[in-house]
Amino acid sequence: MNIWLLSFESIYTAKVGGLAEVPPRLGEALKKLGHNVYVLTPSHGFAEKRGRDHLEELLSIEIDKVRHGIYLYDKPPVPHIIFSGGILDHLEIYSPKHIMDKIRVWSILVRILLEKKSETGIQWPDIIHGNDWHSVPVIIAAKTVLEKPSENKRFIYQIHLLSRATLGIDQVSTGIGLDPHIPIRGIYGWKTIREYYELSNSYADRLGALISDKTVTVSREYVKELVKRLGWDLERYFDYIPNATTWKLPEIIKSVTRIHSSLKSDINVFNPVHRRSLRTYTELKALGTMPQREPVIADHEFRVFLERISLEPLMPDGKTKPFEAEGPLAIMTGRLARQKGIHVLLKSIEDVIFNIPTVRILLLLLPVWGERKLAEELVEAASLYRENLRVIFGKAESLYYLAHMSSDVMVIPSLYEPFGLVALEGMITGNMVVASKTGGLAETVKDIHLYGLNGTGLHVEPGDPIDLASKLSDALLFMETGYREPWGKEWYSLVEKINDRTLRNLLYSNPEAPWIIRKSSHNRALEYTWEKSARKALMIYTG
């Protein structure tokens, strides 16, 4: 089977968020199952940076009097077809000023690639699998070439995160060189582009679902949310393909000990002595000794913003001072976005500190366009709670895996979360997870109240800082007992501070409960693999 995966970003070319991970990982797994797979993505400057010698030119086309190139990049595990030239080489992937022009040119180039397939040696796809709303005009362009009553091509549309994006009729027809009266096939049979556009009320995600054979997302719970938002007429056309993690604990340990040569190579994150030692090292040393090149911040304006900061513990180069003393550690990772519930966590911190004065909270966040105000709030909070809170903006290779191996609790206070890959990353490294009960997090994180020692964390109400403070405090106290002598004075003191009766009872019945939960978390993450996801995708492709 020939499969084309459309993605606006990729870990092998240009990456901002989680979307960059999924199509290449799924593609690699599909390839291992014997299928011919390509990821199709705009260059976003990658072709220029990488150099033409590393790419095979398939076509050269002039659009808007600007030369554009279509290239094959076969170095990644799954080959990429990269679209370059003009606006497609603008470095900022999601710049509001340029994104629609990028989508327009990408759509035109995909259509031309299909029309000139005999010149490229690339086989026509049996499946076109578009990812998120940026791919909707591309799907329409592809349908006008591929879709004929005699052909059995299937189009899949995947929503990783529901957007509010709208499209004009010109952006899905005349703007990409198509007559709006061209018929295409969708869930209501053969209708014109304009007719399907009018049925969509201009919403990109609904349009993508209307014109595709199947619409998928990343979790069963998020299917319910999408049907409510996009329309009940789409219900029977929905399914889901879970995400997975590529993290493997032995590889993570190897990476950490390579960077931090003073750490032993035989680290066991399920050993209390080792884990406590890692936590102390992270909080008191590693935070203050980041390499000169870190953190890496792609956004120039955000770098300028950080250079103007003079509020300790954050320093102008984006680095931070270490904590002055060791304590229970909670980490949060992901994009700098309100959707992630960062502002909810900030509202809860004061109560968490009141409950656990020695708490340490570390946020490792990737800056994104348009969240400057939230960044300012974080800087102020780090200064206000300087004994308890540290924030790193940007990529910090020396800290990322290490923080996961050192921490006690992964906190994910998202307002909504289709899947929540960070939960798997937290669990694979032996963390208890405190996560909002929403979307995929409601499935991947098994609440200890329901599953006992087979659980992996606690669910909280999305957007509720009081519930978050209570659950996070209890989780940290629960995990901290694992470092104390069972039935000793310190152990009793910690247990009695826990408000949650279920957690207290678990400890009284088995003081090893924190380490059993760490193992349960690890094992739960291992259940999600890209091979399983690829097999589910194949069922949908052929269904």
What does this protein look like?
This protein is α/β, with parallel strands linked by helices. It folds into two domains: 2-241 and 530-542, 3-Layer(aba) Sandwich (Rossmann fold); 249-526, Rossmann fold. It is 40% helix and 17% strand. It contains 21 helices and 17 strands. It has helices at 22-32, 46-50, 99-115, 136-146, 193-200, 204-210, 220-230, 249-259, 272-284, 300-307, 342-355, 372-384, 397-406, 421-428, 441-444, 448-451, 465-480, 489-497, 501-509, 513-526, 530-542; strands at 2-6, 36-42, 56-63, 66-73, 80-84, 127-131, 154-158, 183-186, 189-192, 214-217, 238-240, 329-335, 360-366, 389-393, 409-412, 432-436, 457-460. Strands 3-4-5-2-1-6-7-10-11 form a nine-stranded mixed sheet, with helices on both faces. Helix 4 (136-146) links the parallel strand 6 (127-131) and strand 7 (154-158). Helix 8 (249-259) packs across helix 13. The chain is globular and about 75 Å long. The model has no long low-confidence stretch (mean pLDDT 95).
